[in-house]
Amino acid sequence: MARAAHGKGKGLKTMTVLNASGIAREVRSSYAFVERNWYLVKRYWGWELAFFVYTIASSLSVIYIGKAQQVNQNDLVLYLGIGTLVWAYLRAVFDAISEMITWERWEGTIEYTFMAPISRLTHMLGTAAFSIVYGMLRTALLFVALALFVNLDLSRADYLGALAVTLVGSLSFLGIGIMASVLPLWFTERGAEMTFIISSILLLVSGVYYPTDVLPGWMQPLARISPATYFLDGIRRSVMSGQGIAELWNVLLPLMLMGLVSIPLGVWVFLQVERLAKRTGRLKRNG
Amino acid sequence: MQTDAIVVEEIVKAFGGTKRRWLPGRRRAGDARPEKTVYAVDHVSLRIRKNEIYGVLGANGSGKSTLIRLLSTLLIPDSGRASVFGHDVIRDEQVVKRMLNRVSVEASFFKKLSPFENLMYATRLYGLSGAQAKREIPVVLQALGIPEDRIHRPLEQMSRGMQQKVAIARAFLTTPVFLLLDEPTTGLDPRSKLDVQEFVLRLRNEHDATVLLTTHDMAEADALCDRIAILDRGRIVAEGTPSELKAQAATPELLDPTMEDAFMHFTGKSIEEAEQEEAEPVAV
Prior knowledge:
The structure holds two protein chains of two kinds.
Chain A: H1 20-43, H2 45-67, H3 73-107, H4 110-115, H5 120-147, H6 159-181, H7 183-186, H8 191-205, H9 220-225, H10 227-240, H11 249-280
Helix pairs in contact in A: 1-5, 2-3, 2-5, 3-5, 3-6, 3-8, 3-10, 6-10, 6-11, 10-11
Chain B: E1 4-15, E2 38-49, E3 53-57, H1 64-71, E4 79-84, E5 87-88, H2 93-99, E6 100-103, H3 115-125, H4 130-143, H5 160-173, E7 178-182, H6 190-207, E8 210-215, H7 218-224, E9 227-232, E10 235-240, H8 242-249, H9 259-267, H10 271-277
Parallel strand pairs in B: 3-8, 3-9, 6-7, 7-8
Antiparallel strand pairs in B: 1-2, 1-4, 4-5, 9-10
């Protein structure tokens, strides 16, 4: 049976200590979030479709900038295509995690989820698992849709390298998503909108559509601490230059380190803000 | 000898107070103005026996819902303590969570999802396997009078009464030993109200559950509760069985008082007047 040690204001000490059956139970409970989110995607299929059409249109409008160039047209199309696809994936992962609270507040179910006998880590793992699977499926569909309009030359791609960057890079992005998800818990009125600021800064500094060295000097440190920078660099090198896992260590290592730091930090921040919400009654406010 | 299942000792929860400054900087004259502190629950102590239905009667804003949230681990008290079957609600939070469930005045579901989908989510959170949940959900919903063809349709297409029955089903499926009912029948038609009340009794009798029911419905409290506490401005002003409370309100002019009379006797106002006076505190 699971045991809980809820220390006063000690963040990570509030995590549940589990034995084997407890772990099995938590894994089963984490599937609740995967299944629920899948049900929501099915029920809100109209929204999904509309947002998907929007993503195709905005991706193509960027890719055609490359097509309009006279030199290195194919490379530019692929460069921008990778930018739009990777950003669509990261945005899907980031949104699914950062909306963890927003969505429940909107539906009015947040108190029931927070009252359930699951650890917050289970809550996050379930949400994260869904976000990665959902992000990958959506990006694969987006790739198919974009390929109907433009020729994305994948003849040099090292797929194993790209897969490694995607998996490790996803982990590095989860921590940021978890940290962003506390904003609607902390700021009950406009917290959801604040998460847009984080994603737009990541879009600006990470080299989604241009190399980061065109950014002004004071922005360069931001580019260096953004996991999206390494994610994009790794995917471009594996797809455009055919670099494998061995050659990608200098992006995989920073991504791994970022994941190792940002996920525990994100969980710790979340637990602190959850405690604040329980002290001040912020969980109660719906809508 | 009856044992105390729930123990609440001198618990306090206040909202408001001086606004905390998050950014350093010079304080302006207007910044020093403190907000009004509202004591939602003010030194409340109570003991609920195992298998008892304990009612908390009070107007809107009297602190009933805050008390429920404190016991269901959704709020941290400013002082005092509460325990559920010997487990402290703060220190043993996970253990306490496993023992309780709550039905609130709002059904609180994903409205686009069907009752089945909502209940799959809820039961998985409480550790039920998918196969067990798929087997039990239709049985419980049908026992509550929800037709089979409605089980897979979006919840938003159901009446409030039906949605509230799904909320009762959620609590029933997770077999809590301590059930918190926060005005579960408010706004329901008389038929739905009776159905919900019958189910509460069933849950107590079949699952050996201990129930805390908050309500401002005097007749409901009188009919369902073994003992009642009257809460006024966050403080318990009276406690006893329905007959004891009514007996204390009796006067030579009023030999057979109702619960409404008892409420007026202890609070000095009718429930309608109390509701006009008190506003539910809102967190900042």
